[in-house]
Each structure stands twice: as structure tokens, then as C-alpha cells.
Amino acid sequence: MRRSAGATLIELMVVVALIGISAGAAGMAVRHEREAGLAELQRELAAQLMEYHAGCLASGRRPDAAALQRLEESLPSARVRVYRRGRLATVTVSWTSMNGLEQRRSLSVFAKGSQ
Amino acid sequence: MARRERGFTMIEMAVVTSILALTIPGLYLFARTLDDHHQIGLWHLEVADGVRTAGEELRADARAARLLPGEDIRFQRPGPCSPISYVVAPGGALVRGAPPGCEPPRALATHVVSARRVAAGVELGFQLELRPGAEQRRTVFLPVGE
Lengths: 115, 146
Description:
heterodimer; A: alpha+beta; 3 strands; B: alpha+beta; 1 helix
């Protein structure tokens, strides 16, 4: 039986499909890496905001309006809530991550005076 | 039966060359995009690390020393090892330094292009140059002291 030289259409399709799947997986992995980096930066910016509020509560001083505005501009989706029970104050910062999920961090301090 | 010449015809060569001409730029752009995403991901991690380290050092210095007036980031503290200054060194490192003979200078953050005083804190500018004309920038505010 005569066997013509070259690849069949099926073989070509398999090779193209394998290349496509590999490229897609590589693309997804790298995109995930980028989003993970940005998520880490967002967590850090949220921590800065949270620690600033907590520091103000612990030292009994009022948060500076200019500082607060700049901190909130760094992470526009951030919302800060302060719960107080006696001297214990809990600062909770929540923000929306790139994948649309709500993230949250909290820090409790002993507050000085009343705000 | 006619004899089949060995080798490729002009049409076959033209088809292969056209396909390569179409796919190679696409693959190059795809690989470059992957590399850009990888670099940006790492850069974000380094910025986050730098923000954490610089923020902690600045707050610690603000508690123990007084931020001197002016545009530079300098802290005055009691004793000979003063002032402590924060400067952007060539290469993009934010360096905390004391006078000679005191504690050695320390790099706190990388990819920094600017560090300036603003109301109630310090603003750090971070930049990643992927290639000429393609840059990523981020400005981060760090509250310092009162």
C-alpha cells in the first residue's frame, strides 16, 4: 500500500491543539502571577491604612485629613470601620480585589482617650 | 508514471514562508506579553515589600526622632548619629543612611524613582521600565508621625 510522505490532517490538528493548550496554560499561569503580585500590593496598602487608623487610636490623636485622603487614594475601594468596646478598638479595612472578591483585614488596639 | 523531483516546489516554499511570517511575530508578541506579565507580577511583590519595610523604618524613626523641616526626608535625633536621611540612590534603591561612623546605610526598597515629603507623610514613586516607552508606575503614600 502506498503511504504518502508528510503529516495527515489529524496529526497536524493534534500538534496545533497541543501548542494551543500549552500556550493557554502558560498565559493563565503568568496572568495569575501578575494578579497575585497586585493582590499582595493591595494587601500592603490596606495594611498601611489600617495601621494608620490603629496608630491614631492607640496614641489618642485625630487622623490627619490629608494623610487619610492620600491613603484612601492609594486603594480607592477600601472602606474602614472602627468598632469600640471599652478601651479595645478594632480597625477593619475591607477592599475589593481584582477578581471581585471582598478582602478584609483587622487589627485590635487599646485606644487612648475618646475620638 | 511521471518522475517526481526531490525537494519542494516554489508554491510549497511560498506557503511555508507565508505561514512563518504570520506566526513568528505572533509568537514573539505572545512571549513578550508573558514576560511583561511576569515582570509586572514580580515588581508588584517588590513594591509591596518595599512599602512594608520603608513604612516600618519611617514610623520607627518618626517615633524616636523629629522630622526636620524642608523638602528632604531627614530625622534629627539626640546624639552624634544624626541626622538620619532617606535618599534615592542610583539604581533605584531607597537608602536610609546615618553620618559616617554610625550604623551602615540600608536599602529599604527597590525600583524607587522618587521620595518626597508631602503633607503628613512621604510619597514614594516606584517605576518599572519594561522597555523604552513601556513603563509601569505607582505612587505610594506613607504616613509619618503626626
